[in-house]
Design a protein that fits this description.
alpha/beta, about 20% strand, about 40% helix, about 400 residues, 5-stranded mixed sheet, globular, single chain
């Protein structure tokens, strides 16, 4: 039996420090592990050798600074994780391993306004099909991350009232998918998962404080504070779409007037172009036309950017993030939308906060949320079972 301060408990703690450092980064050289953990190079070398012999990590030759080095990552066959992203018009699923490699990924159209049961049926089918396609035994699945475009009650796990998913209100996505797949399921809203995806693989890498802004059928922000997603006590942090811009403006679905969402969300802004561009116009097409020089689309995209910038300025004044990442189809507009955002931030934010802020497009496009869902699973798992050599691994975290 280990006692606090004993040699065996110290060794166990060092093992966990090394595993944690590797799982947070995906892969590290032994020198990088030593720097991040504060352990000596000799201790790291011995621990890596032990973990490799036990099948917990894999070591591959690499180079660092022009010198030969050894890259350490979690074993690729130790287990797999699954990400599921319910968008407003699509379902996307990805399967990845513990070495941060995506093994399979697929997206298909889905009308989320249909029943929740139909959505879960489709998700269950696609998850099972992709797992089978990888050739990995289903028993290797350590968990599923699930993203939904709506607020999740952190106490009950139920989906809150939302005009975006009216048929899903009151459902418990975690319980529903756990019952179907028989593995732990972790749920979060799409903006938080987009932030997590960009933090791990995209435009947020190396940043500890950022906001991921997603503009789609609604407007939300995923907030990262000191490297962690901030959800707030009720799980509703980041509802930037309901910042009031005009008290006499249009009535929002939340019941207030002039929310940011009423000036930026797809169902509002596309209406501005319906008479000139037809009823079939989508945000993706609007962005494409704007990039091609269409004056009406360029005007609307610019106006949306200025309105988003007003909301971002409020975030700057309150949270002082170092980076804002714009996700969704709107990010494809590039400087047509980013420049107006920066202009509004410069005008309305505290100068010291505005100077330290960079506004960039997301690097992952429509994949941000499903990759964030993979990261969510790993973020919620621990290290103990990894070190105990189980194949049903309690997996690493992406943070």
């Amino acid at each position: 039996m280990e006692t606090p301060g004993s040699q065996s408990s110290l060794h166990r703690a060092n093992l966990e420090r090394v595993v944690r450092a590797v799982r947070l980064s995906g892969s590290l050289t032994q020198a990088e592990i030593a720097r991040s953990t504060g352990l000596s190079a000799a201790t790291v070398s011995n621990i890596v050798r032990e973990l490799k012999d036990g099948g917990t990590v894999q070591v591959t030759p690499t180079s660092a600074g022009g010198r030969r080095a050894r890259s350490v990552s979690l074993s690729g066959d130790a287990g797999i994780v699954v990400g599921v992203d319910f968008g407003h018009t699509h379902l996307r699923v990805a399967v990845g391993n513990l070495a941060h490699q995506v093994l399979a990924e697929e997206s298909e159209p889905l009308d989320v306004d249909a029943s929740a049961a139909q959505g879960f049926d489709r998700a269950e089918h696609l998850v099972n099909r992709l797992i089978e396609a990888t050739g990995i035994a289903p028993g290797k699945v350590v968990g599923v991350g699930l993203g939904v475009p709506g607020p999740i009650d952190v106490e009950t796990g139920t989906l809150g009232s939302t005009a975006i998913l009216p048929g899903w209100t009151g459902t418990n996505p975690r319980e529903e998918l756990t019952g179907r797949l028989g593995v732990p399921v972790h749920v979060d809203n799409d903006a938080n998962l987009g932030a997590l995806g960009e933090l791990v693989w995209g435009s947020g890498r190396g940043v500890k404080d950022l906001a991921y802004i997603k503009v789609a059928s609604g407007v939300g922000a995923g907030l990262v504070i000191n490297g962690q997603i901030y959800r707030g006590p009720g799980g509703t942090a980041g509802e930037i779409g309901h910042i009031t811009l005009d008290e006499s403006g249009p009535v929002c679905r939340c019941g207030n007037r002039g929310c940011l969402e009423t000036f930026t969300a797809a169902r509002y802004v596309l209406g501005l172009l319906r008479s000139s561009h037809g009823p079939e116009l989508t945000v993706e097409r609007m962005v494409q036309l704007a990039r091609e020089g269409d004056p009406g689309c360029r005007r609307v995209v610019g106006d949306v950017g200025r309105h988003i910038g007003s909301g971002v300025a409020n975030l700057c004044n309150l949270l002082n993030p170092s980076r804002v990442v714009l996700g969704g189809d709107l990010a494809e507009a590039g400087e047509l939308v980013l420049a107006p955002i920066r202009d509004s931030v410069a005008r309305y934010a505290i100068p010291s906060a505005a100077r330290r802020l960079s506004v960039v497009p997301g690097a992952l496009g429509g994949r941000a949320e499903v990759l964030g869902a993979l990261a969510l699973v790993l973020n919620e798992m621990g290290d103990s079972t990894l070190l105990d050599g189980s194949t049903a691994v309690e997996a690493p975290a992406f943070t």
